[in-house]
Automatic annotation (TrEMBL), chain A:
This protein's UniProt keywords: Membrane, Transmembrane, Transmembrane helix, Transport
Official protein name in the record: ABC transporter
PANTHER family (alphabetical): ABC-TRANSPORTER METAL-BINDING PROTEIN, METAL ABC TRANSPORTER PERMEASE
Organismal lineage: Bacteria, Pseudomonadati, Pseudomonadota, Gammaproteobacteria, Chromatiales
Topology versus the membrane: Multi-pass membrane protein
Annotated Gene Ontology cellular component terms: ATP-binding cassette (ABC) transporter complex
GO biological process: response to zinc ion; transmembrane transport
């Protein structure tokens, strides 16, 4: 197992994936706090479609995916497009565009398949640099965004009452999530990135003793699930994306059974 | 501390929403002192079935700088390190109201703060509301006349034709 992890051939993909496996669950926890986890799937689909569109126009996939997802995130903020209906349309539009562009370009077809399957082993220096950039942005902006985002959740009229520019932090978080989903989709695949946003946050929302530990726990759960999936996919010669989703779903079932076996607490 | 009392449907809650710029004003106007910082709580505390924040983190989110147990009213200190989704409805409501009172807001607006509270928690709320707020203002809207007359220094009754001054036990 350790040989697989430290094989020089997979060093770059492993590092890139590790970065994203730590960051995406944190963004997922914030999306779950705002009850916007479905938006992550919409953004992942938009990233996927715009990566292919970029490819068709001669733009690198990482640039195309990021621009598409950021555009989606910005539109979401400015139109105040919240709720399942908006995200449902985002998912359908992204899915339709991905497959149509993929079907009509030779390179696009390969990329579309890679995005759906999640072939992390092809992640290279570009994806690693993009991941590091995302990490730097998260370190810089998340501590500043955290309090306004939490306040907006529990005291939603505070900003209006005090005429504060709430759109700034909503846009900041939407763009950060969109950027994370774009890089995540290109590196881990569409469903792999979405699973890392949804499942670790879902697990730690149930188990963590505090918000601080929710963020830490989500990140650690994402990393643990990712490492397990990485090794299992290589050892068992399976596609990475479905393996990652499978491992994370397995963790969910484990937590669910633990929850059911726990005695009910009465306050 | 000003109380606004009156039967349902007389526009008490709408008035609060107008002050916090959350509803359209069709006639008249509201003048707020420039730079006035407001805190406003709706009738119903926002609560989700799964929400992994502690009481202390909720206060931090509200803008309370240092939620030290010794400055908290009786009964709230033990809630600081517990997850808010594992508190009873009444405990959560008291903590939620305190989160507005403990901020540096110049004016706190509370809409029906005793809704859904049992007698014990209602009594705890009266004690909390009666605490000195260093000259900062509070406007409470409620149909609970007893609460208003005990905690407010001035009480107005909303009638069809306007507002009428009503007596309070606090004076």
């Amino acid at each position: 197992m350790t040989e697989t992890l430290f094989d020089p051939l997979f060093r770059l993909p492993l590092l890139t994936g590790l970065l994203l496996a730590g960051l995406l669950p944190m963004l997922g926890a914030l999306a779950m706090l705002r009850e916007e986890w479905l938006a992550a799937l919409g953004l992942a689909h938009l990233a996927s479609a715009s990566a292919l569109l970029g490819q068709a126009l001669g733009v690198p996939a990482v640039v195309g995916a990021t621009l598409g997802a950021l555009g989606g995130g910005a539109i979401k903020t400015f139109l105040s497009a919240r709720g399942n209906i908006a995200y449902g349309f985002m998912i359908l539009a992204g899915w339709s565009a991905t497959l149509l562009i993929g079907a009509n370009t030779a390179l696009g077809e390969q990329l579309a398949q890679a995005l759906v399957e999640g072939q992390i082993y092809f992640a290279g220096l570009t994806e690693l640099i993009a991941g590091l950039l995302l990490l730097a942005l998260c370190i810089r902006t998340l501590p500043r965004l955290m309090q306004p985002v939490l306040r907006a959740r529990f005291f939603p009229r505070y900003e209006t009452a005090n005429q504060l520019p709430a759109w700034r932090w909503h846009l900041g978080l939407d763009l950060l999530t969109a950027g994370g989903l774009a890089i995540g989709t290109l590196t881990l695949g569409l469903m792999g990135a979405f699973a890392l946003v949804l499942i670790p946050a879902w697990i730690t929302f149930r188990l963590a003793p505090s918000w601080r530990w929710t963020l830490i726990g989500a990140s650690l759960t994402g990393v643990a699930g990712y490492l397990l999936a990485f090794v299992a996919a290589l050892e068992l010669d399976q596609p990475f994306g479905p393996m990652l989703v499978g491992v994370l779903l397995g963790m969910t079932l484990l937590v669910r059974s633990l929850e059911r076996s726990r005695p009910m607490q009465l306050d | 501390m000003l109380g606004l009392w009156g039967p349902n449907g007389t526009g008490k809650s709408t008035l609060l929403k107008a002050i916090v710029r959350s509803t359209r004003i069709f006639s008249g106007h509201i003048e707020l002192q420039p730079g006035l910082k407001l805190a406003y709580l709706d009738q119903q505390p926002l609560r989700r079935s799964v929400m992994p924040l502690t009481g202390r983190e909720l206060l931090w989110a509200a803008g309370v700088q240092a939620a030290r147990p010794e400055v908290l009213p009786d009964g709230l200190a033990p809630l600081l390190n517990r997850r808010i989704d594992r508190l009873s409805g009444g405990q959560y409501q008291l903590l939620w109201i305190w989160s507005a009172l403990a901020t540096d807001a110049d004016l706190v607006l509370l809409d029906e703060p005793t809704n859904h509270l049992d007698p014990a928690n209602r009594a705890a709320l009266i004690e909390i509301l009666a605490l000195e707020r260093n000259g900062r203002g509070m406007l409470i809207v409620s149909h609970d006349h007893d609460l208003l007359s005990r905690v407010c220094s001035r009480l107005l009754e909303v009638r069809d034709r306007g507002l009428i001054e009503a007596p309070t036990t606090r004076g």
